[in-house]
Write a structure and sequence with these properties.
The protein is α/β, with parallel strands linked by helices. A 10-stranded mixed sheet has the order 10-5-6-11-9-8-7-14-15-16, sandwiched between helices. Strands 25, 28, 29, 30, 31 and 32 form a 6-stranded mixed sheet that branches.
Length: 1504
């Protein structure tokens, strides 16, 4: 028997012995506890356990220990027996025990001495008391690796909200999206291997995919063990992150074996628990695969089932909580999964069905589960006591003899009630079509229950959809929700669409778009702000957005964080899209573009699937993809987390490969640059549309495709495709053949691109040749030879401007070289002045480029763009050096230094020539390679400097003593060491070629180095020559062989890497040159000053803004733009379809498709086999019916013949088997529809409403009084209604009952039944509809019939225009319903009639007094649809409700009586809720009221 610790003072030293600390647990920063409404006097701790602790095998920090140690004993109790009362039973060892089951020494010290309890019997309510719990903390299962969990010992009376607070706030559990309560056999049982695997995999899958909690009994046996092993197997097969499943075991503390190891008043962190099944005896061990344990204590030992009431209350409390996930608030659903089980399991199923909890029965698991599964498909009348007895004998063959006749009746009644609620019952059968997995069965059960649950309007469908979104089960949504049973309006899907976006569920977004959601209607200002306000906190954009808000709060000196607005978004994104959401004069103005705004929201969070789906809805697809690429690249540069950056770059590279369309790849000559050479983040899978869509456009129509490149997109900040591609450095796009063809056309201006370059140069030198046919033009108006505009068109072409500038620049360099080498006089000559004037024109041109702002970016933005270009920096450097040299040159004393500086400037100007060569397809790529190699050289010099300096210092120190001259120190350390690499070895380093005349002994000669250490006698070197030679050899080995070859290898690697993409990079950089000369004035320097003067007049005097040439940026007319975008969108759809076809042609995809088809074919074959079997069975049943009818006909013939005197009874041959006849009676008796049961149902509910009284179970077949039912012994219950003036006696004594006159008017009380005379037995009337399981009058006020009136007030449901709404070709009704105070349900406006009254009291509450006579007239004019017995839960054997139902229908919307009725309804009691509600079968009313509504709809021919 398990021992239990005593409650006594524990010293700190003793406490350490009882609860030793198990190692040093790492402290973790506790999180701040959110506001949580708890029970009164519930102490809140200052911190709670973060979620990460559960993810790391529950390590608990010191702060958390202190919080738990202080919070749990103050709020959670245990139970102790405080008085030892000797029991007649003994323990397993034969010792005397208390009535509670514990030994004397396991009680408190004063338990046997207390004289207070004087009762003769042991009373748990007095002898068991609550006190602070002494068992909680972390439980570690010894010998099972890292098995760790949480546990707590709680009193059986603990409020559920306290336990829920502990789990969510202190144990760090997320509120569940689903609660799975697994019940069944508590002892080990055998399941079929296939069914076991299916159950385990399905249960773990549904828990992991939906974020569910699994609640079991927690012991290492039976179904709890199966659940634990399912969780264990799933965790082992998944990654750590995916394998988190919350499995909560709720067990009885008194039945846990080895529980003494869990007792620790200060908490066990951890408590070591040993799982010992061999010695557990009648107790149970905890299952090591559960993550949390709630051990329920009622102060007893060895009594099972103590935890069931608390478990029921806890599950109910959790199911009433509301969880907000992904912007959707849903009540936590609960489902009960039944595996095997005994009598207790049947009670659990019955209670679950009664409370509206859906149940999934696993057929094939055994016992109760199989009994229910076998009869679940039968009509309720067929479920008889004999049938249940037969099933029990099959599935309970070992314990069948324990079933008494009373228990058989009880089981039959409960199973009938369970099967009657088919909407809550789901049978999982292995191999059933459409239900191959347990997870699908569980989710289908929830949806089926929700679909059949009564709701107003669309509430049930909305609830189902919210569940599907919360669980991320789009497959269930497609098969169970979006069916023909319900028509969804696009606006109804907007809330769940937002939830799917926020929670990153692209499949649902795609589904909602397929169901008709239009982004233009969905995306509004408030929706967009809401989406940004609920961004993923882990993304970079969210943190940057919070910084912007914080800066604004500091700037405005406000105390509250400002609400997110769209101008904050533009501040985070930077200047690239700042123009999208402008803020001016304190308000935000921008043009809503739903697809654009939603696409940006998805892209900044790096949600690739969402972005791809939204992009597919975009009309301006190429601009959208390029803009998103630019945004992502900017965000990637600011990402600080290297792991995240690597993931983003890897993702970008992966989708970049998908982006290359095969045809576009050939056009673009090579793939995009590798991420190592150009680390950039492009638009995930959207990028695939750049070359793909543009390639299709270019193939279809070259002119339209080029218009797409230069079209101004108002939605994306008045930019163009080409401009976005350049800003984002999308080389793959710019190097595309179509883009290059457009750039070539721009390069040649208005001339034809097939003109030879030699023709252009010849015409430049001798322009009259332009008026010959040597040069051809594209435009027809320039074709005439005598046209004067040919001259302008020729000299304004970028190619001509470029070559004229080359000619000018070469002339400048030649003149500059001539002046430096030949004509550099003390006073400048005219040639030198010409150079100065030439340079001034260059300065003016650079200034124009700096200030040229056709897009209105501003000076700062243009300056940043100007200095980003390397060649501009080189120009500025050359100009500044030239100005410095010119300043020194004009000062006579610094004439020579000035010439030196000007010489350096000449070198820089010559380097500028390389930019000119970039236009060449041959030299351009080589210049790019040189630039890359210069970077390699720069990093190589760092390595080389280490060896040069180290060898130089060592050599200088060994050879020369105290050299104080700095210039010679530099020579010896750096200069000589560097020259040694190239073979200039110092002659004195080995002493062989030493000559003292070549050096200065004392270092006094400024033109000679200091001599090495020498012998004073013979002036020979005394330094160790062998050492210097070794150092020299090592130095040359590492520098000449190792480092120089390393440099060569680096050059080779760079060359190979760059050479593959040089053509692509050259094409990208070629645009800069073309754009520069496209916007450059036509005259070359120094004549360009004339153009500058013209620009100055236009900008300064005439105030004309700078404009970009239409050839690079063109704003189209609305009609032309709309036609162009429609054409682009059409080709985009074609491209996407082509991509899908290519994916389908993939070998792996083909294999998957074939495998899926084989599975579907196998399922269809199984279904066909089942159908064939069912068809054969149906035919056999039909044949049996015919044989049975034939046998009856023959029997009738024989009886008729006997009646006429033909033959005798002995001669009659047997016709058919009596056994078969009996079986037929059982099988064929009563086949009424399930919706119309033969007997009352609500009046036989086991729990009588408003009390704790349980009815005697009455199966359907025992309802009629004519059927013999010897076991029938119903309890007696009559409520005392103090608020009723007239009621029958509270206790049915014979004297008081004899005063009642039945079947007549008894004073004011009408005791006449609409069904005629009823029987009276022992002074009590008998319910004419049969037994109910309860005697007395219950909550009714009199015995016999209790009369009621239920008026059904209806009108047609109409549209705004007054037309009647129809559904399924039938008109729809609206009915008047009311919700009375202290009631949770809606009902018809009627009720019981008080004696002598004509209108029910509840109806009078609704109507004002002055309208009562008019309403009575309406009732007289109405149609009576029901008059008689009403199946009411309050009915008993001796009292029942009979009602009159009158239909009052207003056919016209202008009916005066209806308007008067509405006016009187508006002035009724404010505590009442009254509404006109659409009438259908899902309207949430009492079940008996819904039957009345069905009759009304049938009467009026309306939809139901």
């Amino acid at each position: 028997m398990a021992a239990r610790g005593r409650r006594s003072k524990v010293l700190p030293s003793e406490l350490n012995k009882v609860c030793p600390e198990r190692g040093d647990d790492p402290a973790t920063q506790p999180r701040k506890m959110s506001d949580f409404e708890v029970v009164p006097n519930l102490q809140q701790s200052t911190s709670s356990v973060s979620k990460s602790r559960r993810k790391a095998h529950f390590p608990t920090g010191s702060n958390e220990k202190e919080n738990l140690i202080s919070w749990i004993p103050e709020n959670i109790r245990k139970k102790e027996c405080t008085y030892f009362f000797e029991s007649s039973q003994t323990s397993d060892s034969g010792r005397t025990v208390c009535e509670c089951g514990y030994l004397r020494e396991q009680h408190l010290e004063d338990a046997a001495k207390t004289p207070v309890f004087l009762g003769k019997e042991w009373d748990p309510s007095r002898h068991i008391q609550e006190m602070p719990t002494d068992a909680f903390g972390d439980i570690h299962f010894t010998g099972l690796g890292q098995k760790m969990g949480k546990y707590v010992r709680v009193s059986s009376d603990t409020p559920p909200r306290v336990i829920y607070h502990l789990m969510t706030q202190h144990w760090g559990l997320d509120a569940p999206n689903l609660l799975i309560s697994v019940t069944g056999g508590a002892k080990n049982f055998i399941m079929k291997p296939r069914l076991k695997n299916i159950f385990r995999q399905g249960l773990a899958k549904v828990a992991q995919t939906t974020g569910a909690w699994i609640i079991t009994g927690g012991s290492h046996a039976g179904v709890m063990k199966q659940v634990g092993e399912a969780v264990r197997d799933f965790i082992l097969s998944c990654s750590h992150k995916e394998g988190e499943i919350v499995t909560i075991g709720i067990a009885t503390w008194g039945t846990v074996y080895n529980r003494e190891s869990l007792i620790c008043p200060m908490g066990g962190f951890p408590a070591e628990y040993v799982l010992d099944e061999e010695n557990q005896g009648s107790l149970s061990c905890l299952d090591s695969n559960h993550s949390h344990f709630i051990l329920v204590d009622d102060g007893t030992h060895g009594r099972y089932g103590v935890e069931i009431p608390l478990r029921t209350r806890l599950e109910k409390f959790i199911s009433e909580q509301t969880k907000v996930k992904g912007g959707v608030a849903i009540k936590i659903p609960i489902v009960c999964v039944v595996v095997e089980g005994g009598p207790g399991t049947l009670d659990t199923i019955y209670n679950a069905i009664t409370n509206g909890t859906p149940c999934v029965i696993v057929e094939g698991s055994g016992r109760v589960a199989d009994v229910i599964a076998q009869v679940a498909s039968l009509p309720v009348p067929k479920i008889t006591i004999a049938l249940i007895q037969k099933k029990l004998s099959v599935f309970f063959h070992d314990t069948y003899e324990l079933f008494t006749e009373g228990r058989l009746v009880e089981w039959t009644k409960k199973i009938q009630d369970i099967v009657r609620s088919r909407q809550l019952l789901t049978i999982f059968r292995d191999g059933k079509y459409g239900q191959q997995d347990v997870d699908v069965a569980i989710l289908q059960a929830l949806f089926k229950a929700s679909r059949n649950q009564d709701h107003f309007g669309h509430e049930n469908w909305d609830h189902q959809l919210k569940l599907a979104v919360a669980w991320n089960r789009v497959d269930i949504a497609r098969s169970e929700i979006f069916t023909d049973d319900h028509e969804w309006k696009p606006t109804d899907l907007h809330p769940v669409m937002a939830a799917a976006l926020i929670s990153n569920k692209p499949e649902f977004v795609k589904l909602f778009l397929e169901q008709g959601v239009r982004l233009k209607e969905f995306v509004t200002w408030d929706t967009l702000v809401y989406l940004y306000d609920n961004m993923a906190p882990s993304c970079l954009f969210h943190s940057k957005l919070q910084k912007v808000l914080l800066e604004e709060r500091e700037h405005t000196a406000g105390s509250k964080m400002p609400r997110i607005q769209l101008h904050h978004v533009s501040q985070v994104q930077g200047s690239s899209l700042r123009s999208l959401y402008k803020r001016s004069a304190g308000r935000v103005t921008f043009t809503m573009d739903p697809v654009r705004d939603l696409l940006i929201w998805a892209v900044v969070q790096n949600r690739k699937e969402l972005a791809e789906i939204i992009w597919a809805q975009s009309q301006d697809c190429m601009v959208a993809a390029l803009a998103c690429s630019k945004i992502l690249k900017e965000l990637a540069k600011e990402e600080e987390d290297t792991d995240t950056t690597d993931d983003m770059l890897a993702l970008a590279e992966e989708y970049e490969h998908k982006a290359i369309d095969p045809a576009a790849e050939r056009d673009s000559v090579g793939a995009l640059w590798s991420t190592k050479l150009a680390p950039e983040l492009s638009i995930i899978s959207l990028v695939r549309a750049w070359p793909g869509v543009f390639t299709d456009c270019y193939r279809k129509d070259e002119e339209r495709a080029q218009k797409l490149l230069t079209r101004v997109s108002e939605a994306w900040g008045k930019t163009t495709c080409l401009q976005l591609a350049l800003e984002a450095k999308n080389m793959n796009f710019v190097s595309h053949g179509g883009v290059q063809a457009f750039l070539t056309k721009v390069w040649w201006g208005k001339m034809c691109v097939d003109n030879g370059l030699w023709r252009v140069i010849v015409c430049m030198l001798f322009f009259p040749l332009l008026y010959t046919s040597l040069i051809t033009f594209r435009e027809k108006r320039l074709q005439p030879v005598g046209c004067l505009t040919r001259l302008r068109a020729f000299f304004t072409a970028p190619v001509v401007i470029f070559h004229m500038n080359i000619l000018s620049y070469f002339t400048f360099l030649l003149l500059f070289a001539y002046v430096l080498m030949v004509d550099f006089q003390p006073f400048p000559s005219w040639r030198e002045y010409l150079i100065y004037f030439w340079l001034f024109s260059l300065v003016c041109e650079e200034t124009r480029q700096l200030l040229y702002d056709p897009d209105g970016f501003g000076v700062v933005k243009m300056a940043s763009l100007y200095f980003k270009d390397f060649w501009n920096k080189l120009d500025i450097c050359a100009i500044l050096v030239f100005i410095t040299g010119l300043t020194c040159r004009l000062i006579p004393s610094t004439l020579y230094p000035g010439r030196i500086i000007l010489s350096l400037a000449f070198i820089i100007f010559c380097l500028r020539l390389m930019h000119i060569f970039t236009v060449s397809k041959t030299l351009g790529p080589k210049i790019i390679i040189v630039k890359r190699m210069m970077k390699d050289v720069f990093f190589f010099l760092f390595l080389l400097a280490v060896w040069v300096v180290s060898f130089g210092v060592a050599k200088q120190a060994i050879l020369i003593h105290n050299e104080e001259r700095v210039e010679w120190l530099f020579r010896g350390v750096v200069y000589h060491s560097y020259l040694t690499i190239f073979g200039q070895i110092p002659s004195y380093i080995d002493g062989v070629n030493f000559n003292i005349d070549q050096c200065s002994p004392n270092g006094t000669d400024p033109y000679k180095p200091k001599c090495p250490e020498t012998n004073e006698d013979n002036k020979k070197p005394i330094f160790p020559e062998w050492l210097t030679v070794i150092l020299l050899c090592l130095y040359l080995l590492f520098t000449n062989i190792l480092l120089l070859n390393l440099l060569i290898a680096m050059f080779n690697y760079t060359f190979q890497q760059v050479q593959e993409h040089t053509d692509q990079i050259w094409k990208f950089q070629r645009h800069d040159l073309i754009e520069e000369y496209h916007g450059r004035p036509p005259a070359p320097p120094p004549f360009i000053l004339l153009n500058h003067l013209q620009i100055l007049v236009q900008r300064g005097l005439l105030r004309r803004p700078a404009t970009r040439h239409k050839q690079l940026k063109e704003k189209l007319e609305k009609n032309e733009e709309a036609a162009l975008l429609s054409w682009e969108m059409y080709l985009k759809e074609n491209y996407l379809q082509h991509q899908q076809c290519q994916e389908k042609q993939n070998t792996e995809q083909k294999i998957r498709d074939i495998a899926q088809r084989v599975d579907v074919l196998a399922e269809l074959l199984d279904l066909d086999r089942v159908k064939r079997t069912g068809l054969v069975e149906q035919r056999l049943v039909s044949l049996e019916d015919q044989v049975h009818q034939s046998a009856q006909a023959l029997r009738w013939i024989m009886q008729a013949l006997q009646g006429k005197g033909f033959g005798s009874g002995e001669d009659v041959p047997p016709v058919g088997s009596s056994k078969a006849s009996e079986m037929k009676k059982v099988d064929l008796e009563g086949k009424p529809e399930e919706t119309q049961p033969l007997y009352h149902v609500l009046a036989r509910n086991l729990l009588y409403p408003g009390s704790h009284t349980l009815r005697f179970p009455v199966p359907d077949e025992k309802v009629p009084w004519e059927v013999d039912f010897p076991l029938y012994d119903p309890p007696i219950y009559s409520a005392d209604h103090k608020d009723m003036a007239v009621q029958d006696p509270f206790s049915p004594s014979l004297e008081s009952l004899l005063k009642i006159n039945y079947n007549t008017m008894d004073g004011l009380i009408d005791r006449q039944s609409f069904h005629g005379l009823y029987a009276v037995e022992d002074g009590l009337p008998l319910n004419p509809m049969g037994r109910t399981g309860l005697r007395g009058r219950g909550r009714l006020h009199c015995f016999g019939p209790n009369h009621a009136l239920h008026p059904v007030v209806t009108r047609w449901r109409r549209n705004l225009d007054g037309s009647i709404i129809r559904k399924s070709l039938k008109k729809m009704l609206e009915v008047l319903v009311a919700q009375y105070p202290l009631s949770d349900v809606w009902a018809l406006p009627g009720g019981s009639l008080e004696p002598g009254e004509t209108l029910p009291l509840k109806l009078k509450w609704i109507l004002r007094r002055e309208f009562w006579p008019q309403f009575q007239n309406l009732l007289k004019q109405g149609t009576e649809i029901h008059k008689g017995y009403l199946d009411d839960p309050r009915n008993t054997d001796n009292a029942w409700v009979e009602t009159v139902t009158v239909s009052v229908h207003f056919d016209s919307q202008n009916d005066v009586e209806m308007k008067r009725l509405n006016s009187f309804l508006q002035g009724c009691d404010p505590e009442l809720c009254i509404r006109w509600q659409v009438l259908d079968k899902r309207i949430p009313l009492h079940a008996n009221h819904k039957e009345l509504l069905h009759k009304v709809s049938t009467l009026l021919g309306a939809y139901y």
